[in-house]
Design goal:
Elements lengths: L59 H6 L39 H7 L13 H24 L23 H7 L2 H4 L3 E4 L6 E5 L5 E6 L3 E6 L4 E7 L4 E6 L5 E6 L2 E6 L4 E9 L1 E7 L4 E6 L3 E6 L4 E7 L8 E3 L6 E4 L4 E5 L8 E4 L5 E6 L5 E6 L3 E6 L6 E6 L6 E4 L5 E5 L2 E5 L15 E4 L4 E6 L5 E6 L2 E6 L19 H13 L19 H15 L21 H35 L14
Antiparallel strand pairs: 1-28, 2-3, 3-4, 4-5, 6-7, 7-8, 8-9, 10-11, 11-12, 12-13, 14-15, 15-16, 16-17, 18-19, 19-20, 20-21, 22-23, 23-24, 24-25, 26-27, 27-28
Helix pairs in contact: 2-3
Subunit structure: Part of the small subunit (SSU) processome, composed of more than 70 proteins and the RNA chaperone small nucleolar RNA (snoRNA) U3. Interacts with DDX21, NCL, NOP2 and EBNA1BP2.
Keywords: Nucleus, Phosphoprotein, Repeat, WD repeat
Protein name: WD repeat-containing protein 46
């Protein structure tokens, strides 16, 4: 059965009516084509017709100069004018503010770590390019930090009296009534006279508090929510207590040995090599627990592997005054002869000794920038020292009672515990020494002070005394903003575990602890010259005096890698033989000169005419 053909299926196209091409629809991100001439119909641009002329060959230099499509390292623009302007977006609109966000120059200088007054040393081109690239990266990092400062919404607090009122006369009850409810809840007193006096310590995040009583009471709690983590009685005198790298581990210096507990109060370790411990300090970036003992030994324990790094004999009797410098991790020890010694686990002798008082040293404290050190002694003197190489006293004050405990806050406030009174002095800001003329705040406790510490990232001062624990409100004491990747008070258990792994991978070796950490990035020119001199004496010649031999390229496959190495080695051996031969001839000549008669002076030489 035949079917009728469909119309237009097999018919040839008509000649008088040309077939029109379908117009390609324009996307919304494409620009409208402009007509090439007046009256021309819009349409896609036609391709140029190819001609029979051959394409000129590309030169070899042009191939070498061509950059790859994807670079391994993205180029870092040095100036704001080097940034490329953004291209047209999908919607067709352009950015009304092209380029990077301008950063304030003064803020960028605050974060800048490059000293542009020092010129780059003359070096090889490759090293010079690496130094320039590193300088550009540091400059870009400072600009980004200056832009990100806008996101820090919190500002440090302060306390100002009305009409010239002395802030030292403002009571804690007045401050509690003036602040909000959440801040007022941070002021509390724990009445624990049965097991006192108490030592206390805050965790690095400032969220947890550990306290230890002289009569064996040990407890750890979340002091913000008042949730108790653990509470035990070790039935032994507790001399000091300290958190380790996180709130999950706790070091307790008991009467005889050092013990490690977890946050549930379970005993994990008993370290018998650290006996008669009086004070504890933990170095968080090195994972080192420093202990001072009655026997006069300063011991460093690596808590990541559980081994003793070193035990140093201070040769100064009982050690019961210790503080750490947060800037360079150097331990400061106070002695009964009025001196303060600075120690590093890499040295058997102290890095420096400072004569501070005419009597014994009672307390030592170092600020967070590592610039100033406060000491108090039996001569009732409170002194501020400059640690930037001079070790000279900047200011001093005579107290009616000698301060038995000292501590610095994150923003440079200094607190001193004298009997049952706590005095706080403030300075011009962070990085400036506190002024000892007039106290900033004063508070009287219900017992004698036995421990002081400012809470990190909170305007709170924790005081351990014979009657228990007191939490004071000190406006302007702490940093208002915290680094969520380093010390996050609100981190979960999983975040804490990930942070521990990262911190262990970035652990700083104990051998790098020194007075000036910036010296680690510099070249030790003296040692380098001494090593070069010893090498010349050992070899008998200077191997760097002459440029190395570079063989010329030869034809017909005679410039292979093996032949080049052989030719280099042959020339080097010949030069070495020549230099050794010259040195031997010089030695023989010296021996012959010594063997000649009359070479040595004689008593009869004065009669020779």
């Amino acid at each position: 059965m035949e079917t009728a053909p469909k119309p237009g299926r097999g018919d040839p196209p008509k000649k008088d009516k040309p077939q029109a091409k379908r117009k390609k629809p324009r996307r919304y991100w494409e620009e409208e084509p402009t007509p090439s001439a007046a009256g021309a119909s819009p349409g896609p641009p036609r391709k140029k017709a190819r001609t029979g002329e051959p394409r000129p060959p590309r030169s070899q230099s042009a191939r070498i100069a061509q950059k790859p499509r994807f670079s391994k390292k993205p180029p870092i623009p040095k100036n704001a004018s080097d940034w490329k302007k953004p291209q047209r977006t999908l919607s067709g609109a352009q950015d009304p503010f092209p380029g990077p966000v301008p950063a304030p120059l003064e803020v960028a200088r605050k974060f800048c770590r490059i000293d542009k007054s020092k010129k780059l040393p003359h070096s090889k081109p490759k090293t010079q390019s690496q130094l320039e690239k590193a300088e550009a990266q540091e400059e870009e990092a400072s600009v980004r930090a200056a832009r990100a400062e806008l996101l820090l919404a919190e500002e440090p607090g302060f306390l100002v009296g009305e009409d010239g009122e002395d802030t030292a006369k403002i009571l804690q009850t007045d401050i509690v009534e003036a602040v909000d409810i959440s801040s007022a809840a941070k002021h509390f007193d724990l009445n624990l006279r049965q097991f006192g006096p108490y030592r206390l310590n805050y965790s690095r995040t400032g969220r947890h508090l550990a306290l230890g009583g002289r009569r064996g009471h040990v407890a750890a709690l979340d002091w913000v929510t008042k949730k108790l983590m653990c509470e035990i009685n070790v039935t032994e005198a507790v001399r000091d207590i300290h958190f380790l790298h996180s709130e999950a581990l706790l070091a307790v210096a008991q009467n005889r040995w050092l013990y490690i507990y977890d946050n549930q109060g379970i005993e994990l370790h008993c370290i018998r090599r650290c006996d008669r411990v009086t004070r504890l300090e933990f170095l968080p970036f090195h994972f080192l627990l420093a202990t001072a003992s009655e026997t006069g030994f300063l011991t460093y324990l690596d808590v990541s592997v559980g081994k003793i790094v070193t035990a140093l004999n201070a040769r100064a009797g009982r050690l019961n005054v210790m503080a750490q410098n947060p800037y360079n991790a150097v331990i400061h020890l106070g002695h009964s002869n009025g001196t303060v010694s600075l120690w590093s686990p890499a040295m058997k002798e102290p890095l420096a000794k400072i004569l501070c008082h005419r009597g014994g040293v009672r307390a030592v404290g170092v600020d967070s920038t590592g610039t100033y050190m406060a000491t108090s002694g039996l001569d009732h003197q409170l002194k501020i020292f400059d640690l930037r190489g001079t070790f000279q006293p900047l200011s001093s004050r005579t107290l009616p009672q000698g301060a038995g405990h000292l501590a610095f806050s994150q923003r440079g406030l200094l607190v001193a515990g004298m009997g049952d009174v706590v005095n706080i002095w403030a300075g011009q800001g962070k990085g400036s020494p506190p002024s000892l003329e007039q106290p900033y705040l004063t508070h009287r406790l219900s017992g004698n002070v036995h421990g002081l510490q400012f809470c990190p990232f909170e305007d709170v001062l924790g005081v351990g005394h014979s009657g228990g624990i007191t939490s004071m409100l000190v406006p302007g004491a702490a940093e208002p903003n915290f680094d969520g990747l380093e010390s996050n008070p609100y981190r979960s258990r999983k975040q804490r575990q990930e942070w521990e792994v990262k911190a262990l991978l970035e652990k700083v070796p104990a051998e790098l602890i020194c007075l000036d950490p910036r010296a680690l990035a510099e070249v030790d020119v003296t040692t380098l010259e001494q090593q070069k001199k010893e090498r010349i004496e050992r070899l008998g010649y200077d191997p760097d005096a002459k440029a190395a031999f570079q063989p010329k390229a030869k034809q017909k496959g005679r410039s292979s890698t093996a032949s080049l190495v052989k030719r280099k080695k042959k020339v080097m051996d010949q030069e070495h033989r020549d230099k050794v031969r010259q040195s031997l001839e010089q030695q023989q000549k010296k021996k012959q000169d010594k063997a000649k008669p009359g070479a040595h002076p004689s008593a009869l030489d004065r009669f020779v005419r």
